[in-house]
Amino acid sequence: MDSYEITANAKINLFLRVCGILPNGYHSLYSVMQEIDLSDSLTVNIYPEREEGFEIKCIGRDDIDPEKNLCRKARDRFFSSLRKKASADPSVSNASVLKNGTFPYIEMVLTKRIPSESGMGGGSSDAAAVLMVLQEHFGDPFTESELNQLAVNVGADVPFFLYGGTCLCERVGEDIKVLDSLAGIPLLIVKPSVGVSTPECFRAIDSRPLPPFDHGRYSEYINSLNSEGGDPLARFLKGADLLTNDLEAPSFEKLPEISDIREALLGTGAVYSRMTGSGSAVFAMYEDGNARDRAYEQIRNDERFSDCDVFSSDTI
What is the per-residue pLDDT for 87? Predict the structure, then answer.
């Protein structure tokens, strides 16, 4: 048996713009995604001697359906793509551990800490972790570009987690530009007990005119973000008038509690607060860890949010 241990970190969308609909029917997005230190843990055990099969056990949260977890989809897509590549290129087949066209038995134990329907990409991060483990185990059969395309076929946020850190993500999420790190910003994250359906959120976006998007101004901001040193929070906030999330309005309508949380976080002294992704989690940034810790206590003692998950975190 070969065993792998890997950490799957969550993300937040520092801002998110919806720029239209692509020919394939997916929405074209423009977003800076940021890895944070809230994480799931994944153990992958690979049994070359056992007949091909798959088993996953989810522990730590009771709101995750193991059968719908993206880890299974990542495993299936990886094996399907590897089988096709090995058939077309004998050198890949010889370098892999393929035996008689079958793959080994895989057992996964996933410890969940990232809540579902939060906009923090927990399932996508888990799936990316699976892809990275399998890529290593099978001797790097895919190029970076091939693995990136395989990842986006698993889920829109999955390619980001192959890189982590701070990245500009465009189109469906497959166009990735790694940016200078914004690590070290103290965060407070509040997740309501109820989630937001991503498809419903996008359907609501489609029913109204899109807000204007000035690509030139955003490009200038990204260039400045990616070329100046110094305090990461100060660098990020230089683009304050551009930092919005187009999915907030429909999510606020479907779940007004999200708006209440954001207002409450701003009231704790946060210097910036947004919903991440399509929600329902809201994050807030603070000048320092002490300010964040005081805000944590304030939110935890607010009866309005007694049924929420509250996380103290940092950008990494």
Answer: 85
